[in-house]
Write a structure and sequence with these properties.
Blueprint: H1 3-17, E1 21-26, E2 39-43, E3 49-54, E4 58-61, E5 65-69, E6 79-82, E7 87-96, E8 99-101, H2 106-114, E9 123-131, E10 136-141, E11 150-154, E12 157-161, H3 176-185, E13 199-200, E14 206-210, E15 215-219, H4 235-253, E16 260-263, H5 268-279, E17 285-290, H6 298-310, E18 314-318, H7 322-335, H8 346-352, E19 359-361, H9 366-370, H10 383-394, H11 409-419, H12 429-441, E20 455-457, H13 463-471, H14 475-479, H15 482-490, H16 492-495, H17 513-528, H18 532-540, H19 545-556, H20 558-580, E21 585-586
Parallel strand pairs: 1-3, 16-17, 16-19, 17-18, 19-20
Antiparallel strand pairs: 1-21, 2-5, 2-12, 4-5, 6-7, 7-8, 7-9, 9-10, 10-14, 11-12, 11-13, 14-15
Length: 590
């Protein structure tokens, strides 16, 4: 008997001696018009596992593991089993070396991930591998965590999925430190989530659970990707960085998922992607959301002019009326699991995507990579000082609307320092911290929203390009606009269009009446889902008497909602989200 079969025999004997586990999973991919996104799974070593699943999705299972993924016909299943080894693999997103996406064959995907030990994997992805021979569960995400993956350990099992809401049993407690971070920053600092006990898989690398005791080991991603932060930016450096970006776009095209299309704004990042696509012989269709309905919208106006001049297909769409906006926002909040209140225009953009599978290029976070931090004049003093300053920025006091129990800003700062500790010796630690923080803001825009049959591509996050741009001394960015310099040097025709905004120029305008009406309609819809007594009970856990009084005014005076929507919306989003969310998992009655 060989070693592998002896190991299998031991596992078989052990789980027969342990009580079996039976759970029910109500598919989280059934509750939205986009049919959800990603995957959910469970690993239960040494015990026979039985999962009864209801609702849509593709399922795969072995004795100790279960996977369920959102899927649409002909666009890949995202969950697979290697019949030779009984290994289960879930994979969402793409890698570029070799090129492979979530719609690849089961053989390609299981072969790639089954023995993958490389800490530097280029792409945007979340993957989970259940290996019965090694008796391990391994969770992997891309280097900066743009594609999220969450987990919780309970009763000798590990649940994991691409949204924290996919892991709920209904007995969760809201984490007050995460809640304070969400209310103050619009995202959650660190690897925690809105729920105690549910965590986000660390950035990049691999988190592995082993054996019946679920011992964990963590492999960090290649820190060279974070760059040195002390290099020059000569003409030769610019030529090299531009060539790396061109290669990044070509790597995405090599996935050959479908014909490319892209979101186009007035900004320089989408123009740079457009320039690289045109240089590669592509002529993508372009999409824009018109967010300002009270006058000319900068993005729609400039993007339309660019597309018309270059004779490219272009479609623009307005944000919907208040009632449709409210439904969209409630849907968006469910899809992102309460992780962020930003990017409320995402549903409108998704409706512009075609019915057939599309390869969508996004310029997401190109500004964070290449522009100075907004409103920071005293940055880059020293790594330690910059780290402390950034942690303090994220740890603002709770303010008069929150209760005494919510004044946990010191804990938020400590989580920030812990998350960024790996970069603490880098002269550009502030840039890296801002980049990692922006990942949280990007959840709504990226991984959770796009329908399963589309593939979203982010060439600015190619590791070779990122390392090169992060090698540059960040103080150079304080003196000149790197993005503008690259556009004028390599894409002068695209740089000539009017309205090229720098980071600091993109400050949001004061809300219009229609925008306030949209917010009020959303909060009315959210509050309608719960009895008034239950709303007050949940809000009283986190709000001060002043905050509760302001919430009460929204029922008596609609004008109060219009005036204070900027403060009320994140409170309604975060505090009531857990109460409104239906648990995905349940245990059978005893």
């Amino acid at each position: 008997m060989n070693a592998a079969s002896m190991s299998d025999l031991k596992i078989e004997t052990d789980y027969r001696e342990q009580p079996s586990v039976t759970l029910h999973l109500d598919s989280p991919f059934a509750d939205t018009e986009w049919n959800g996104r990603g995957f959910v799974g469970i690993w239960c070593p040494r015990r026979r596992l039985s999962v009864n699943s209801s609702g849509p999705g593709t399922a795969r299972a072995n004795h100790h593991g279960f996977l369920l993924a959102a899927s649409e016909p002909g666009t890949g299943e995202r969950v697979h089993i290697d019949t030779a080894s009984d290994t289960l693999v879930a994979f969402d997103g793409y890698v570029v070396d070799p090129p492979m996406h979530h719609a690849a064959s089961a053989h390609e995907i299981t072969t790639y991930w089954r023995d993958r030990r490389n800490a530097r994997i280029n792409g945007n992805f979340a993957a989970a591998i259940i290996d019965p021979r090694r008796e391990t569960l391994t969770l992997r995400t891309d280097a900066f965590g743009l594609t999220p993956l969450y987990y919780r350990v309970t009763d000798g099992m590990v649940l994991f999925g691409t949204s924290p809401d996919y892991l709920l049993f209904g007995d969760e407690t809201v984490d007050p430190v995460s809640l304070l971070s969400l209310l103050n920053n619009g995202f959650i600092v660190g690897d925690e989530t809105l729920y105690e006990g549910i965590r986000r898989s660390p950035l990049g690398g691999a988190l592995t659970f082993s054996g019946p005791d679920l011992q964990t080991t963590s492999e960090r991603f290649d820190l060279d990707v974070a760059g040195s932060g002390d290099g020059p930016l000569t003409d030769r450096d610019m030529d090299r960085i531009q060539e790396l970006f061109r290669q990044a776009v070509d790597r995405c095209l090599a996935l050959r998922y479908s014909e490319p299309l892209m979101t186009l704004s007035a900004g320089l990042d989408s123009r740079r992607i457009l320039g690289a696509l045109l240089a590669s012989g592509e002529r993508p269709a372009t999409l824009t959301v018109r967010m300002n309905t009270d006058g000319d919208d900068l993005d729609a106006t400039i993007a339309g002019h660019i597309a018309a001049t270059l004779d490219l297909p272009h479609t623009a769409a307005d944000l919907p009326d208040p009632h449709a906006y409210a439904r969209d926002s409630a849907l968006r909040q469910r899809l992102v699991g309460g992780e962020t209140s930003m990017h409320d225009w995402s549903p409108t953009l998704q409706r512009l995507y075609p019915d057939q599978p599309a390869m969508i290029f996004e310029g997401f976070l190109g500004d964070t990579l290449q522009e100075p931090l907004p409103h920071w004049d005293d940055v880059y003093e020293s790594p330690i000082a910059d780290m402390d300053r950034y942690a303090a920025k994220l740890a603002s006091p709770g303010g008069p609307m929150l209760s005494a129990a919510m004044q946990r800003s010191a804990d938020v700062a400590e989580r920030a320092r812990a998350q960024f500790a790996s970069y603490a010796d880098r002269p550009h630690v502030s840039d890296l911290a801002e980049l990692v923080s922006d990942m949280r803001r990007g959840i709504a825009l990226g991984s959770q929203f796009v329908r399963p049959h589309h593939l979203q591509l982010r060439p600015f996050f190619d590791l070779d390009f990122m390392q090169a741009i992060l090698d540059v001394d960040p103080r150079i960015k304080m003196k000149t606009s790197i993005r503008k310099a690259f556009m004028e040097r390599f894409h002068p025709r695209l740089a000539e269009f009017a309205g090229s905004p720098d980071y600091a120029d993109r400050k949001p305008a004061a809300p219009s009446r229609l925008q306030r009406d949209r917010q009020q309609a959303y909060m009315t819809l959210v509050a309608r889902d719960l009895p008034v007594s239950r709303q007050r009970e949940r809000l009283a856990e986190v709000l001060s008497p002043r905050g509760l009084a302001l919430c009460a005014l929204t029922r008596l005076a609609p004008g109060a909602t219009q005036r204070w929507y900027w403060a009320l919306r994140p409170i309604f989003d975060a505090v009531l989200h857990a109460e409104r969310t239906r648990p995905a998992w349940s245990r059978p009655p005893a």
